Amino acid sequence: MNGLASSEDRNALLQEARDLRLSQRIPEALAALARLEALHPRFSRLYQERGHCHVLRGDAPAAIEALREAVDLNPTLPASWDMLEQLYRMLGDATQAAVAAQHLATLRQLPSEVVVANSLFADGDLGPAEEVIRAYLRKDGGNVGALRLLARICNDRDARDEAESLLESVLERARDYHAARLDYAMLLLQQQKHLQARQQAEHLLRHDPDNRDYLKQYGAACVGLGDHEPVINLYERLLADLPRSGTEVADLRLWRANALKVTGRQQEAIVDYHAALAARRDYGVAWFSLANLKTYRFTDDEIAAMRAAATRPDIQEMDRIYLCFALGKALEDRGDYPSSWAYYARGNVLRRADSGYRPDVAESCVLRLKRTFTAQFFAARAGWGVDDPAPIFVLGLPRSGSTLIEQILASHSFVEGTQELTEIGQYAAELCGADPDCGLPLHPEALQRLTAEDVRMLGERFLAETRTYRRLGRPFFIDKMPNNFWHIGLIHLILPRSIIIDVRREPMACCFSNFKQLFGTSNQLFTYGIDDIGRYYRAYLDLMRHWDDVLPGRVLRMQYEDVVEDFEGSVRHMLAHGALPFEPGCLTFHETKRSVRTPSSEQVRQPIGREGLVQWRNYAPWLGGLRDMLGDALTGYRN
Q1: Are 386 and 498 a contacting pair, CB within 8 Å?
Q2: CA 396 to the chain's CA centroid
Q3: What is the Cβ-side half-sphere exposure of residue 29, based on CA atoms within 13 angstroms?
Q4: CA distances from 635 to 224, 542, 618 (A)
Q5: Above 80 in pLDDT, residue 607?
Q6: Are the C-beta atoms of residues 47 and 69 closer than 8 Å to each other?
């Protein structure tokens, strides 16, 4: 159902309930509102209408409860505040009556169009809200509240460049408009502009150092920059200062646990994950985070609790997905592979249904890249870019062993590990456009129009923008973004002396490892279907062979199985490729103390093992379709 139809149906149900109330058929009106709530639980006006019904029934406490729900969802409902004031006065609660009266007075001071647009926005009616507020701004273009609202609308419909421009305009007019500055900080964070987001949070904290929303924004920006140590104490501080709800306790415990995990303090992280679950037992992401440690083993009671939560009809869909993947891992660890597969498969089906991923997009992107990045293209641009050898790009498919290679290199005294940096993908999107579902470049031919100066400036921009992640002063640093294999042509163009390492894993092991891994909400969407994964692996091989053809010798391939079988020889070969002297510390990579953010964070803190080579075989009965889709890639993946 599209958004317009959903909105029309929602409003029709609301009108039905209103007509029933006006006809004094209150039980039927409440029944209609219950049906509406089941479909649209965050629709503020249904709760306002329920408040009207309870007033007619003479049930003041029920009316207040409904109206409080309405204004919590949508503070711009004058009728709700008006009724709340009257109800509180009737019950003798002068304090709450005064609060409601103040809200009502504030709304009455605002232009009616701004109130209407705010109310529409709060209920998710972006199109009508935008229409109303743009019409108002044509009369009063300097109204900073209206401009902020338009920015929020633009952000929600993914017009983030316009939203950013609007908020910058607001802050130029009203430097102390703190709500707009918080919006701006949150927008910067969404766009992976972590340093700027933290600067905005610091500005807000200078005004109000104890503001919980500002502190959370600061913490999120720190995490984006890889600064996990400060947020451990920050979240502890927020927990000590009377969190507002059990949900907030669960979130803070989860975030603190994540930071502890990244910094290698696993046992403390487990304590906080359990504390998050104590605050909210059906918190799917906390259950999954325990499973995602890869080393945690669930008890019988924990598995029973997860199974019960996963079957509840009222649980949020994302919680159910997290629980399915957590149960898949828990049962895999117990050797119950049929049940484990059932949960992995269910989790993937649920996640795939909401992803919008189309496998033909990746295959078409490979063809466009091959047409653009020819040997002649690179020959005509020889000598372009920035002559700096500092970046080391570790790339390939997810779950291929790239975190292991990163950890080995980051154990060298000349090399700093950072994280999966997003800059290269951001530049590709700016220059080529990006598919709205999976972010792959749409028009790589646009790079043919770049001048030598454009290319040099882009290389310098990368070095400048990634400097904030480099804190140890080492001559080399790692960008371990797997998806950069799509952008090897761009990387070579702007940074021709950088080191590029493709980490490759046997296809069945790699593809199954991706199938059983739940990634971030918008990352690696190809991993939620067996056919999708197989087609993506083939597209990856096709593109990597092209890079080898047009840039012979440019990319070092590290075969995961070879690293396992001849560890020291592989390490020496990799270091020699980068002209790095051999250091024994690279062989004891698991002892290196550093932050690791990927799903392999706990695995690379242990000596290398052979488990990853054969785990997929436990699921061979269900992987026939994957073998068929991979075809000759099963034998040709080393070529």
Answers
A1: no
A2: 20
A3: 24
A4: 39, 14, 20
A5: no
A6: yes
Within 10 A of 357 (CB to CB), how many other CB atoms are there?
Answer: 20
Q: Is 584 helix (H, G, I), strand (E, B) or coil?
A: helix
| Parent domain of 15 | 1-109
Of residues 363, 372, 358, 322, the one with CA closest to residue 343: 322
User: How many residues can be counted in the chain?
Assistant: 639
pLDDT tens-place string over residues 281-328: 999 999 999 999 999 999 999 999 999 999 998 898 999 999 999 999
Do the domain assignments include residue 482?
yes
Confidence band, pLDDT 50/70/90 cuts, at residue 595: low
Secondary structure class of 465 (helix, strand, coil): helix
Query: Domain containing 3 — which CATH number?
Result: 1.25.40.10
| pTM score of the predicted model | 0.85
Q: What is the 3-state secondary structure (H, E, C) of 273-287?
A: HHHHHHHCCCCHHHH
Tokens of 625: 């379709």
Query: How many domains is the chain built from?
Result: 2
Q: Maximum distance among all alpha carbons in the chain?
A: 86
C-beta of residue 394 within 8 angstroms of C-beta of residue 445: no
CATH number at residue 507: 3.40.50.300
Query: Which uninterrupted H or E stretch holds 499?
Result: strand 499-504
Q: Are 392 and 476 in contact (CB under 8 A)?
A: yes
Q: Answer yes or no: is 46 within a domain.
A: yes
Confirm whether 27 is domain-assigned.
Answer: yes
Work out the number of other CB atoms within 10 angstroms of the CB of residue 137: 19
Answer yes or no: is pLDDT of 1 > 50. Answer: no
